[in-house]
Design goal:
The chain has 345 residues and is an alpha/beta fold. The protein has a 7-stranded mixed beta sheet with strand order 1-3-2-4-5-6-12, sandwiched between helices. The chain has a 6-stranded mixed beta sheet with strand order 8-7-9-10-11-13, sandwiched between helices. The chain has 2 domains: 3-152 and 293-322, Response regulator (Rossmann fold); 154-291, Rossmann fold, CATH 3.40.50. The chain is 44% helix and 20% strand. The chain has 12 helices and 13 strands. The longest helix has 19 residues, at 154-172.
Length: 345
């Protein structure tokens, strides 16, 4: 698919990457921060006009979830509903506090990226029992009471990059590679595990592939140190895969710092202006990434909640595909980056 033809709504959401991207982490995971209190919003900034009142709760204050918020606002404006935005900042106690607040405010629906598959269930069940419709996105929870879960197809995200990496190994590395994986399984076991499995299954089809290191580092700053340690402990590593943006950015930076641009290549996950720049850089380190669609996830989550409130049928599980960005198709990367920069002016 041509990257340049992505619809305008998604492109407008992605332009936020230009103003917030540097060393970040999609699912990228930033440090838990401020700005977690509920905020009243709608697509046009007047929350009081909505027929329904819907709360949207993000998981982190990072690029991925900021774009989710843009999608939610777009969905709220088009649906004519009031939207209250909050963020758990990666903390279960903050998520519980937000849920209690929204239950007290008698919202009609809650759209949420849950903190954890298991520990988030009780608070959301309490909201459900209060008559509130629940839609989860980015991650699922235990229990069948949410009306829908909307997220990226995690296995497909990993697989798409894995297939591209396998082709590179076959064409450029004689079918052999020593691989290090930088994931975030200790943070979010289910989505990170699925994403990692998709990548591993694709590259392991080559008999000459060996995975020699697996470590978690979802923030770019930490990933730099982790990857530098791996390169020291395993000097034969010649390919690194990052399961999220932070791992990808950190891996590229670590390879540069180690002076191994001609010896180690990186494949990764998520897309931003910074990552597009890595794909176009002459150092030839980053080869390909698979980007998600956080704007679409946010927008569809609100639309699904509205349909459920109206008694309309909704899909119980929605999986969105990713978008592959490859150095092999640098002209599309260039067009995409130029288009985003033009929108930002």
């Amino acid at each position: 698919m041509s990257v340049f033809t992505i619809n305008l709504r998604r492109s407008l959401s992605l332009v936020l990457l230009l103003s917030t991207g540097l060393l970040s982490s999609g699912c990228s995971m930033d440090k838990p921060g401020s700005d977690t209190a509920p905020k009243a919003n709608s697509g046009n900034g007047t929350a009081s006009k909505g027929k329904y009142k819907i709360a949207g709760i993000g998981f982190q204050n990072d690029q991925f979830f900021k774009i989710n918020e843009l999608g939610m606002k777009d969905g709220a404006e088009k649906s004519g509903v009031a939207l209250l935005l909050g963020n758990s900042a990666g903390a279960l106690d903050k998520e519980i506090s937000l849920l209690d607040t929204y239950v007290a405010q008698k919202v009609d629906a809650i759209v949420i990226a849950p903190y954890n598959t298991k520990s988030s269930t009780a608070g959301l069940k309490k909201a459900h029992d209060a008559g509130i419709k629940i839609v989860t996105f980015d991650n699922a929870i235990e229990g069948d009471f949410p009306v829908s879960v909307i997220k990226s197809d995690q296995i497909a995200l990993g697989k798409a990059t894995g297939v591209e990496a396998a082709q590179y190994i076959q064409d450029k590395m004689g079918g052999k590679a020593k691989i290090a994986i930088i994931s975030y399984i200790s943070l979010l076991p289910e989505p990170a595990g699925q994403r990692t499995k998709g990548f591993e299954d694709a590259v392991k089809k080559l008999p000459g592939v060996e995975i020699v290191a697996r470590q978690d580092a979802w923030m770019a700053e930490k990933a730099v140190g982790v990857v530098e340690g791996i390169l020291t402990a395993h000097p034969d590593v010649n390919l690194i895969w990052g399961a999220n943006e932070g791992g990808t950015v950190g891996a590229v930076t670590a390879v540069r710092n180690a002076g191994k641009a001609s010896k180690v290549v990186v494949f990764g996950t998520d897309i931003s202006d910074q990552i597009a720049g890595f794909l176009l850089a002459e150092d030839n380190i980053l080869q390909a990434v698979t980007g998600q669609k956080p704007f679409d996830i946010g927008m569809q989550s609100i639309e699904t909640a509205v349909k459920a409130l109206k008694g309309e049928a909704v899909e119980k599980r929605v999986l969105l595909p990713g978008m592959l960005f490859s150095r092999r198709h640098s002209s599309e990367v260039t067009k995409y980056q130029t288009y985003l920069r033009g929108l930002a002016k």
